[in-house]
Write a structure and sequence with these properties.
This protein is mostly beta strands and about 475 residues long. The chain folds into two domains: about 15-330, Tachylectin-2, Chain A (5 Propeller); about 330-460, Sandwich (Jelly Rolls), CATH 2.60.120. It has helices at about 5-10, 390-395, and strands at about 20-30, 35-40, 50-55, 65-70, 80-90, 100-110, 120-130, 140, 150-160, 165-175, 180-185, 195-200, 205-215, 220-225, 245, 255, 265, 270-280, 285-290, 305, 310, 315-320, 325-330, 335-340, 345-350, 355-370, 375-380, 385-390, 400-405, 410-415, 420-425, 430-435, 440-460. The mean pLDDT is about 95. The structure holds beta-D-fructofuranose. Beta-D-fructofuranose (FRU) binds near residues 50, 105, 156 and 210.
Length: about 475
Amino acid sequence: MTSAHERWTPRFHLAPRRGWLNDPNGLCQFHGTYHVFYQADPTWPTPGKRGWGHFASRDLVRWEDLGEAIMPSIPEDADGAYSGSALVVAGGAPDGGDLLRLYYTGNVKYEGDHVHTGRDANQIMVTSEDGVSFSEKEVLLRPGDYPADLTRHVRDPKVWEQGGRYYMALGARRADDAGNVILYESADAVAWACRGRIESAHPFGYMWECPSVISLGGRDYLVVCPQGLPSEPTRWQNLYQAGYFPLPQGVLETTQVDEATFVELDWGFDFYAPQTFTDEGGRCILIGWMGIPDADYTSAPDGLAWCHCLTVPREVTVGADGLLRQWPVTEIDGLRGFAQPVSPAVGAILPHHHADIELAGIEGDLELGLDGRLGLSFSADDGLLRMAFRDEGAACGRTERLMPLERLRELRVLVDGSAVEIYVNHGEAVLSTRWFPTADTLLVTLHATCERARSWEMGGEAPSA
Ligand code: FRU
């Protein structure tokens, strides 16, 4: 019998060996190396201050754990080095080489309600010429630099270059409790001037965290994480959401978005604060946090020395309907080992909880079970895909999620210890969840009509130090 720790530790999802992880930060490819920074609290479960942890990889599957990259150390980030992004500036280094700039929010807390008073948000930059050592911190924006109608919540700088200028999007909460994105512009990516804001026609949540822009297929998509949307039976089922607005115009021409066009990026229990970047091969790659702030379910049952993981890197493309598709980067396929058929009438028993299960040519309704604890069912009659836990132990407080779906044709299920990602119809939709199985083998039950059903044992190993 393997220990809970071994069974729940993923092989190809990034998780810290110890301590807490939340948002992915500073995603980039720099000098060929992929960098994934993340919100880290290494002292967890004893609460400490958030900083940036750091993983690096040449191939998106074998990762090195480089420890702490940015930790609170100046008065302007005294209570946390919060989320932010990376900008690679070609030829930006003093010697003419490329320069990596990392932007983040320095969080400072003092006496007050921490919304309208008692909090400062400073936007701070560090630079690096090698991707592993970082310069002194430079404070770029301070509380006096933000529009006067905002609360003290202004954070998560996303910086990009467009037409020879630089732009920064910040997530913000207005004093009248409406989520906004504030846009800044700069000639050198260091000195910033406020350029305007993007808001929704009608209030859409009280705060928008972690803004980002995806430019694909000639169109811009504004990604935000709205807080404060009321849960409905088949949408906004998590406490906070992560999704995007497909923009009719370019992001720099946009001042207002139509909240009716908001599309959720993931339908599972555990997905938030996604970031994207364009790699050196031109792929748009998304990584999300497999967690949600303030959720009423846990991701840290007894036996784990770490809390939360990230999704696998997902390639983002645009479908014929103009909406985004997500699919595990092809490097993940390279981890496939022994293949085994899955019987459409019965299922299969797999040796462990690291598997890639693929069902193609599905006709009609379907029922798929993992260990008899986590069920996925589709009924064409009610047009719903249902992901439901049947066992409180494995769920740790998770219940069920419903997703409207006209037709189910394909499913790909990545199981990796305590992480599960379910890709529907080749990435039209994704459902991500954590679960905490107790058996050593993975029992897959299946009742479906499908042309092909097979699974692979998945290799991979936790990041090396
Ligand atoms: C999102 C978030 C960000 C913030 C970070 C702090 O999960 O709340 O807005 O920068 O986490 O860890």
